[in-house]
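G.,

No rush on this.
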Amino acid sequence: MIINQLNHLDMKNYPTNLTEKQWQVIKNIYHDDRKRKHDMKEIFNALFYLLKTGCQWRMLPADFAPWNTVYYYYRQWKKNGLIEEIHEALRNLVRKKAGRHESPSAACIDSRSVKTTRSGGECRGVDGGKKTKGRKHHIVTDTLGLLLVVVVHAANVHDSKAALDVINRLKGRFNRLSKIFADGGYRGELVDNVKRIFGWIIDIVMRSDQDKEFKVLPKRWVVERTFAWFESYRRLSKDYEYLTDTSETMIRLAMIRLMINRIEK
């Protein structure tokens, strides 16, 4: 019996679990002292397990709370903005720890096309350039690569067309912001529209036609590195979500996991 108990404890110690120090950071943001049947730390652990492994909700290990309980809290926190609130607070902590102001003065914008599953979902299309049927994950980061905005939309919408809506979500949130770095796909009337509507400068960083080999471009590599970080989370390797706002929440959860690791270090 003792051996069975030890095996059960070992099985619960997943690499994706929060350490006690990490949990205290989240708990200080997540103010909830009510007694509940399931420990909220275990709910977060289940979400990070699902995000990292890419498993289905119904296939969450029995060590966690029942899958429908985990899903219930996920939906509630998505709707009431708790996950976004935790994300914003952690980003401020990471920026402070790096000696930066909470409000960035510069940002980077980019998107990536991601396939969707056969179950479908809202907002799907074909990215003609990359021949990808699915959605685009459109993000804006600060110069540390931390997420400022995420918008998920159909893959057939060109970056320069979708960018105005993405950039609009920065409005009123970062009073020091003055410049946004972007690649050549954002050229055109977007530059003038952003300057006229928001007063921000779109700085286009172009790759030279003379460069035969891969070359890291100033500023632009930051947002590309953020996409590389996301690749370590299998739930983000494809867009498995039916709703786009669920996809956006999953991306915020991935960034929460990345930032909480950085804060502990």
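When you get to it, here's the other one too:
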Amino acid sequence: MITIERAPAYLTIQDQGWQASRSAGMPVSGTMDRWALTAANAMVGNPPDAAVFEWALTGGRIRVGRDARVAICGPDASATQTIVAGGELDLPRPTAGRFLYLAVAGGLDVPAVLGSRSTYLPARLGHALKTGDQIRIGQSFSVSRTVVPAGRPNYESGVVRVVAGPQRALFSDAEWQRFLSLEWKVSSASDRMGYRLEAEASLAAPTADLPSEAACVGAVQVPPDGKPIVLMADGPTVGGYPKIGVVISADLPILAQRQPGAPVRFVGVSITEAQAALRQISA
């Protein structure tokens, strides 16, 4: 059993989310930084989809009821540690990035809903953990092999690759180049649903009246004010704003970890390059 002795300001349980339920209107949800989730689990011998703690904003403290092997992973953290029964672990405040992840050998034993143990607060699936909450540790997995993770995203660069979006043709070539050349900053009005971006200038949003259509995580929507919004883990499954681009899956962790005010630059790539990048980071 794990007891939350002092909960961070934001603390939830997440895994890889609801990967096959978007047709029913369910967001993918799950961890904001998929690489950190997979890496933390690999460091303690868990499968990639084992549930972990995701925390942000402040530090905290947990206590374990039995010996436990844990791993902390994030932009500025990658460490494993064994905690003896009754021992405590301080969770640091994220500094270099926005989220940190704590994996425990055996995973976190909470009920799965529709195939996921993730927390999706808008639908009240799971809840934000608070001081005094207790979480069971799962049994060790039958195949437990610790791995040193590779393919770490270049978090520090703030450079994020994008492919052309489904409405790219509604934007002029000059506007596409402006989108790529401007230094954007993550707005404080950003959350797990979407990151709003700001720059010294805004994009010229198309005036076309578009019907709502399917949208994916990473879609870069341009609302009438010309300030792009990138759909994140809890983002909606449909949207009507024109999508100038889509952040490639391999670079979503980089964007997810950018704190409010942090700069972001976009680089255009092809679908083939995006697929190669995903294969590399998945290795």
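The two ends are 32 Å apart (CA to CA). The domain at 155-282 is CATH 2.40.100.10 (Cyclophilin).

Enjoy the weekend,
O.
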